[in-house]
Amino acid sequence: MDKFSHLDENGRARMVDVSKKKETDRLAIATAKVFLNEKTYTMVQNSEIEKGDVLTVAKVAGIMAAKNTANMIPMCHPINLTSIEIDFVMDDKTHTIEIRTSAKLNAKTGVEMEALTGASVAALTIYDMCKAVQKDIEIGEIKLLRKTGGKSGDYKNESYIG
Question: What keywords sit in the KW lines (predicted)?
Answer without folding.
Answer: Lyase, Molybdenum cofactor biosynthesis
